[in-house]
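Follow-up to my earlier ticket, as requested here are the two runs.
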Amino acid sequence: MKNIVLFILSIPVVLFACKKDIDNNENTDVEFDDTPYVLEHSYFPAPNIAEDNQLTIQGVKLGRMLFYDKALSNDNSLSCAGCHAQGDAFSDTAQFSTGVEGLQGGRQAMAIFNMAWHGEGFFWDGRAPLLRNQSILPIQDPLEMNESLDDVIAKLGASERYRDQFKRAFGSETIDPLKISLALEQFMNSIVSVDSKYDQYLLGQETLTESEERGRQIFFTEFDPSGTLVGGECFHCHAGVNFANNEFMNNGLDGDGAQEDVGLFDVTEDPADMAKFKVPSLRNIAVSPPYMHDGRFETLEEVVAHYNSGVQPSATVDELMQYNLEPGLGLTPENIADLVAFMHTLTDQTFLSNPEYDNPF
């Protein structure tokens, strides 16, 4: 009996020792490791990953650590994940995210997933040409993390864990803005959503309900002036496997003179780009309200109502909106409900709870 008690009492010690060994191995076995990270993407085409920043296990790990680390902010209170939560499709359900100084931004936080299939031009206005450029701008933005890159480097450099991980990922303990941006780019490129009900339907593993199927047909049908078919025109802008066309478009939210946010024009200063914004993916759209660049719509029903009869004319409104403008799509309440039901099939529960993307600390 005495031996049994001693054995039971020894279990926590053994478990603690195992954990300590894991930590010690991480600290002592510090060598450059370029083992590739295998990106699982089901039936999606192979992504176009930059040649100079191919995904590695250690690079993705470092990027994940940085993404969740509040030390990247001025007062150590806000991480990238603070405005891009996994359960909200790496977006923010607040209309405008609140930064470390209590200030709010002017645009809704864009969702982060399937970035490896995302065309050039990041943020709503495309001001960051590459994902690595985008990754470090929120750190420096006074409305967001309000920190200097020099201070971030000093904080990370004081951590042996980070110095070791930078060496594993890049072959050197030296920490600089480029390596930070490349690691964050790697992690964000590793975030993949390919297992929604609609994906399972395409693979023959799921069946859509009658409402979802009607919504699917409306989504992928053009407007029919004769009224014979019910078409929502949605697929023109939300196309391909990622339900996005990687374009910047004016979708008629505001008419001329009412456009307070001028979008892409701020970057290019080309009048033809007035009020154009990045077309977002519709994947996981049901879990990432509110909608549009300014979060003006709280529900998907409001979004569909806008395209049905609320598109405003302006000099740069996209020509694809011609039928939305006149005569309007003529969708009934049932049509709208069916469209929304279909968009709910784009929610990927596997992605929303994938432990590979959650907080590593």
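Run two:
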Amino acid sequence: MNVFFRFLSTLSILVCLGAASAKAETTLRITLQLPITAPLGQNLVAFQERVEAASGGEIRVEIYPSAQLFTDKEVPTAVSTGQIEMGVSSLARFAGTIPAVDIFNVPFLFPTQEDVRAATAPGSPVRAPLDAAMTEKGARPLWWQPYGLALIMLRDGVAKRPSDIEGRKIRTFGKAHEAFVNALGGAATNISGSRQFLAYERGTVDGGMTGPTTIKDRKLYQVLDSVALTNHAAIEFVVLINEELWQSLSESERTILTDAARATENELRDQFPALAQEALDEAAANDMTVYQPTADDLKAWRAATEPLRQVYVDAAGQLGAELLTAAEAMGEN
């Protein structure tokens, strides 16, 4: 009989150890469209290290870069439906379901990195409502990643003025970017970030829009002749986690993830200006023309795209109007 009870006791211990082991194997997979060596990829590595250290290995983070699992435009749906636990998406990819996210693509509303940092700070009157809206769709933003101010690249010539993209096919990655190009007489072509190099190389498009670090990360200077620093929009990415999964986590697990996310976000914001300049310097070193628009150039860009502010308000509704008011008020301070 004693042997039987010892057997039951041993079995009970094994069951408990099995349960603990299952808990220790909690895994969060993150899909990323960029290479792991890119700033956004290294940002995820920093998050991974923080989470695994703080959780004592009870939470494991696996990163799948270079669109191995999902392309950028597929990420919001993949995360919200639980096809994957986490993912990195361009904020613009939410425009179809949350038009107000295009506040960062209203031309020249956030002309400097300082303006962008203030608007994207956790809890800011611009960011907080967008975080809530994305969470309602089933994909909770854990943190935001800067990707720089939008630039215009061409295979031939330089985009000094709006007329320089008239009649040209320009790679874009969201509705607002499409509206920007089309309003100037260009032909917007939506192409995923992971596929843009081939599009430029093959001449599928005549140029494109992106952030500065992409030029270095994807070696776009090999297939493009110039980049104009128009800085007409702020490109932001969001790192998302499935909301149902988030609600299933313990309070301590949420704290670990939140603390790691905040530290990781601040780290990249601090580093980004230098990273952007480094990318532009590499582009210039590889014979890519880096053009700084003159005051008159920028005046022409602003005048040509001014109507897009009202287009945003009409599309984004009440939330968009509130965000625009908040953004303009921040710009006045």
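The only thing I checked on run two: Residues 2-332 form a domain with the D-Maltodextrin-Binding Protein; domain 2 fold (CATH 3.40.190.170). Let me know what else you need.
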